[in-house]
Automatic annotation (TrEMBL):
Sequence ranges assigned to domain SpoVT-AbrB in this UniProt record: 16-62
Pfam families in the record: MazE_antitoxin
GO-annotated molecular function: DNA binding
UniProt-listed SUPFAM superfamilies: AbrB/MazE/MraZ-like
Protein's UniProt name: SpoVT-AbrB domain-containing protein
Organism: Candidatus Daviesbacteria bacterium GW2011_GWC2_40_12
InterPro entries: SpoVT-AbrB_dom, SpoVT-AbrB_sf
Superkingdom: Bacteria
NCBIfam families: lp_hng_hel_AbrB
Length: 82
């Protein structure tokens, strides 16, 4: 039963098998919920020796861009208050 209204955080999507070239297939429901498209770049993080985390590169770029803008604003305010 697919429910695309659920937020994917904490969602269990099934299993994946590591192929000969080290590739895995992300389950279809996970790709749909995360709106992953063919060719989309992903970041792979090692959480510990037995766990990986995957994030969209485009999402990380948005976050860092947003934080960069906020830091510039904070620096400007700090300079004015000296």
């Amino acid at each position: 039963m697919k429910n695309h209204h659920l937020h994917p955080e904490g969602q269990f999507y099934g299993t994946a098998t590591v192929g000969e070239k080290g590739q895995i297939v992300i389950p279809q429901e996970a790709r749909e919920n995360m709106k992953l498209k063919k060719g989309e770049r992903l970041l792979i993080f090692g959480m510990d020796e037995d766990m990986l985390a995957v994030a969209k590169l485009s999402h990380i770029e948005k976050i860092t861009s947003h934080l960069s803008k906020k830091l510039k604003m904070i620096n400007e305010v700090a300079k004015r208050s000296k």
